[in-house]
Design brief:
WD40; globular; mainly beta; WD40/YVTN_repeat-like_dom_sf; 4-stranded antiparallel sheet; WD40 repeat protein
């Protein structure tokens, strides 16, 4: 086959490469001219790759800054500085499950919350920072989302425990208040009730706005609320898909998380016929679709995508606890049945129960161990099977204790850019 190149200028002054022997013959271009064109195309291509790499590196730096500080559990926490991770011992937060933390782009702590109280960077309660209607025993009791086009304003979304009446609400923090230490300026704006304990956010495809995603109780409806510079749209995009989250209230328990690139969601269902769900997410429309249901894991709780989006990790504890394990699914295995069959236990825990799995800025995953001075660590989460390297006592918390939760972060300020596996 004869390779031929035609360099056309589009509106971005990029070169398009055509490989078509018929077109080549029609053009009848001299070989020397073709080689010149090929050289110009490759120069442009390399330039494009360089720009793309710079964009990715700047995105990763942005993401790592805002997720540099973690506050969770019984006064526990972590600080990430490059490859160095340090235990935090000055936290005022005590929570059985959910929490949220936000830092600035340079990695300096701004504030943290358990969904009830908001503490500033000096570990003091913010003005008006009590009485939020989350619950410290809710899986994802809080989620902090920056307001688009307003660097100093943040939303705190909260969920109640086990589908109770407080439901899904939001409050507002303005960091310009209280001499730059921040204050809560609006509290507990109602969105919907009852809702499950699931709560996450994904950056809109315009890379400016946000989708805040929750799940309605006694329903299979995922709800995506659009957050723009104008505020929170209280009319969500509803997607009726996947398992019904309802019945016994404990079925409201479990994490909802995005893939690193925001094109997928995964949910853990504590007590349901389907214990893990993987779904597609449309970042332009807010629609959820194409569920993959993974069954047979009692007391499923935490869930997390690998940095490259090709693996899914989940935690399950067995009925009544006492069989705490981390399961890995290969999302590239094929269809639903093949993904289910790919499941492998990559680690067992000495804790009666384990909870959240969270990806750190250093590319490792951290596993919450209930009432324990250690976090579990998955050192190589992109690796297949036990090559992922789970260590049950992987990180010592400096005498503080973990519980079931780790901080809840939106996709788009999470650790690094990722890609999505080709599932189904």
């Amino acid at each position: 086959m004869v390779w031929e190149a035609l360099c056309l200028q589009n509106r971005y002054n990029s070169c398009l490469l055509y490989l078509n022997s018929t077109l080549f013959r029609k053009l009848a271009l001299p070989l020397q001219r073709l080689r010149y064109i090929e050289k110009q195309v490759m120069i442009q291509f390399k330039h494009t790759l360089t720009v793309f790499a710079l964009l990715l590196s700047s995105y990763a730096a942005f993401a790592q800054g805002e997720t540099s500080n973690w506050y969770f559990g019984k006064g526990a926490g972590l600080i990430f500085r490059g490859d160095t991770v340090t235990a935090v011992v000055n936290s005022r937060l005590h929570t059985e499950e959910g929490s949220a933390t936000i830092s600035d782009k340079a990695g300096n702590l701004l504030f943290y919350t358990n969904g009830i109280t908001v503490w500033n960077k000096h570990h003091r309660v913010m003005p008006n920072g009590n009485g939020l209607m989350g619950m410290k025993s809710s899986t994802q009791s809080a989620l902090i989302v920056p307001k688009p086009a307003a660097d100093s304003v943040f939303y705190i979304f909260t969920t109640d425990i086990q589908a109770q009446s407080n439901g899904l609400r939001y409050s507002i923090v303005n960091m310009n208040k209280d001499d730059g230490n921040g204050a809560v300026t609006a509290r507990n704006v109602f969105l919907i009730a009852p809702a499950t304990e699931k709560l996450t956010a994904i950056r809109h495809s315009n890379n400016r706005d946000w989708w805040v995603i929750a799940h309605r109780w006694n329903s299979n409806a995922y709800m995506a609320y659009l957050v723009t510079a104008e505020g929170v749209n209280t009319e969500p995009v509803m997607s009726n898909v996947g398992t019904v989250h309802g019945g016994a209230h404990r079925k409201a328990i479990g994490y909802l998380v995005p893939s690193p690139d925001g094109t997928r969601l995964a949910a853990a269902l504590w007590d349901s016929e389907s214990n893990f769900e993987v779904l597609r997410f449309n970042r332009s429309t807010g629609e959820v679709s194409d569920p993959v249901l993974l069954k047979g894991y009692e007391e499923a709780y935490g869930v997390c995508f690998s940095p490259d989006g090709t693996k899914l990790y989940g935690t399950a504890n067995g009925k009544g606890g006492g069989k705490a394990q981390i399961i890995q699914f290969d999302l590239q295995a094929g269809d639903e049945a093949a993904i289910a069959k790919s499941a492998v236990v990559v680690g067992m825990s000495g804790s009666p129960r384990i909870g959240a799995i969270q990806l750190g800025p250093n590319g490792k995953m951290y596993v919450a161990r209930q009432d324990n001075i250690h976090l579990g660590v998955i050192n190589n989460p992109n690796a297949l099977g036990k090559e992922s390297g789970y260590v049950d006592t992987g990180f010592h918390l400096g005498g503080r204790k973990s519980d079931l939760g780790l901080p809840n972060f939106p996709q788009g300020i999470q650790s690094g850019a990722g890609r999505s596996a080709n599932v189904r």
